[in-house]
Amino acid sequence: MTDLPTDRTAGSGRDPLIEVRGATIGYHGTPVLAAVDFTLSLGEVVALVGANGSGKSTLVRGLLGLAQVTAGTVELFGQPLGRLPDRTRLGYVPQRHHPAGVVPCTVRELVGTGRLPRMRRLRPTSAADRRAVTAAMAAVGLADQAGTPVAHLSGGQQRRALIARALAGSPEVLVMDEPLAGVDQASQEALAEALEGLVGRGATLLIVLHELGPLAPLVTRVVALRQGSVVYDGPPLPEVHAAYGGDAEHHHEHGGVELPGLGLRAPGGPNGDSD
Ligand SMILES: Nc1ncnc2c1ncn2[C@@H]1O[C@H](COP(=O)(O)OP(=O)(O)O)[C@@H](O)[C@H]1O
Ligand SMILES: [Mg+2]
Questions:
Q1: Distance between CA 112 and CA 72 in Å, rounded?
Q2: Ligand 1 centroid to 228 CA: how many Å?
Q3: Which residue among 163, 164, 206, 250 is least packed, with the fewest CB closer than 10 Å?
Q4: Are 270 and 254 in contact (CB under 8 A)?
Q5: 54 Cβ closer than 6 Å to some ligand 1 atom
Q6: pLDDT digit string (tens) for 1-58?
Q7: What digits encode the pLDDT tens for the residues 107-130?
Q8: Going from the N-terminus, what domains does the chain have, and what CATH number goes with each?
Q9: Ligand 1 proximity of 50 Cβ (cutoff 6 Å)
Q10: Angle CA(209)–CA(202)–CA(139) in degrees, nearest 5?
Q11: Does the CB atom of residue 56 touch ligand 1 within 6 A?
Q12: How far apart are CA 46 and CA 49, in angstroms?
């Protein structure tokens, strides 16, 4: 593939790294999201928010080819989905569904699996692979846990190890699905610090979040989903969160808030936070 843009500065204009236009995305022919427009440009930190079941994971999975795109277009790095020759450009940390399910290996081994897509088959790891793994562990603050079995880590440390695994592949965009879910407060802060370091180095992030929490200072744009549609796309204003944060659908009793530029009334009130 000689026509693949290899110039890493190519996106430094406003060329989106991810561009979704009028997309219908779902499973087995049943749409979950309809008419979705979404872009992610170089250096952005976008929070994808919305109530449970609103389609956040499905949108993210659509970008990765893990959910079906039945209408519209999805382009990654200027290439239609499915024609992207180099999947390593997009790093992915899936939503955690099985808190107790931990593979029996050390942190270094887990993070090392993030290099596999970049390694030639049946070749031993190169110095570059080992450097990337060490750098990824350091980036999430787990350098001193390299030899620790993953099972001995706290939930938050395990999430950081999974992020390091994605980072080890040196992706240009890192997509994380609810990285803070089920993680205690101290670990959330450690995670936020790790992500702050990445953002400081110009990382482009798409983060599915229940609430912005400790990541609020990093977020440059919020995209809110409701029942499979984008209902907000703009700056991270507090009232957007109150209206569309993860618990919004459970707060009808608070009445609605007016959202700028949308001309619609959203369910939920300003007191959606539980703490
Ligand atoms: N693998 C799947 N097959 C069929 N339907 C699914 C699958 N995953 C999610 N769904 C459905 O898609 C809708 C949106 O789910 P999801 O994208 O996981 O929402 P969120 O991440 O915002 O909680 C839900 O109704 C869910 O039941
Ligand atoms: Mg989800």
A1: 36
A2: 10
A3: 250
A4: yes
A5: yes
A6: 333 333 434 334 467 999 999 999 999 989 999 999 999 999 999 999 999 999 999 9
A7: 999 999 998 777 666 677 788 889
A8: 15-236 (3.40.50.300)
A9: yes
A10: 75
A11: yes
A12: 9
